[in-house]
Amino acid sequence: MSDPARGPGDAGTTHFGFRDVPVAEKQKLVGEVFSSVAGKYDLMNDAMSLGIHRLWKRFFVATAQVGRGDRVLDLAGGTGDIAALLRPRVGDEGEIVLGDINAAMLRVGRDRMVDRGHVRGLEYVQCNAEALPFPDRSFDLVTIAFGLRNVTDKDAALREMHRVLKVGGQARVLEFSEVKPDWFKPIYDFHSFQVLPRLGRLFAHDAVSYRYLAESIRKHPPQDQLKAMMDAAGFARTSYRNLSAGIVAIHTGYRV
User: Fold this and answer.
1) pLDDT at 18
2) What are the DSSP calls for 225-251, one per residue?
């Protein structure tokens, strides 16, 4: 399956927000965005979700297939929010690998985990989700929260998530998705394209990055399309659950 982020009719370009850019440049441009917002990442998520992202993340982890002693890979681990929630679930016997392609985000995540008193059973790896540096069948659970939409080749990333899962293991994607009620869409668009960049300018002195993040949500594959992509990547028993009227969705798949 071709990457839906690619521009129509031009295999050499992809979307960076609403702009078409050469495929080779997207990773660099996304890296610049997250290097810019790394120190304000929680503020960014609060602004984009009106603070509800904290509840979404808790539900995402609480409903994951994970237990004591499991080995978990948290991709696009950002500031460590998902890893911190997973830590008590895997226990002292378990291990969490926090992976992120962006060094600035990874540093923030490591520092915050240490500040929270989480040291044991944690590993930090700078890695590209499209080519993971782990052997086949290495993890019981693979998660990616609010990161897949920024990956250039989403199909490759999903195939890699499937590859590193153990048989019976679960993959979970938490991502902004397509709002369902028609009456709510204009309100959501106004918040995304008028309010959010202004908040970015006011609090982070960076309206451009926040505008990109809003645009990237609109370019991300909607629920049924992402489910089909997970099917094509080899996952079994794929499903999704909408949260907050489809503002976000949790996608789940298994390796069999």
Assistant:
1) 66
2) HHHHHHHHTT-EEEEEEEEGGGTEEEE
Q: pLDDT of 114-149, one tens digit each?
A: 988 888 899 999 999 999 999 999 999 999 999 999
Assign domain 13-180+211-254 to a CATH class. Answer: alpha beta
Q: Per this entry, what is the length of the chain?
A: 256
Residues 91 and 101: their CA atoms lie apart, in Å, by 26
Distance between CA 210 and CA 201 in Å, rounded?
8
> Please, what sign has the CA dihedral across residues 174, 147, 244, 83?
positive
Domain-by-domain residue ranges, the chain?
13-180+211-254
- pTM here is 0.85
149-200 confidence digits (pLDDT tens): 989 899 999 999 999 999 999 999 999 999 999 999 999 999 888 888 888 7
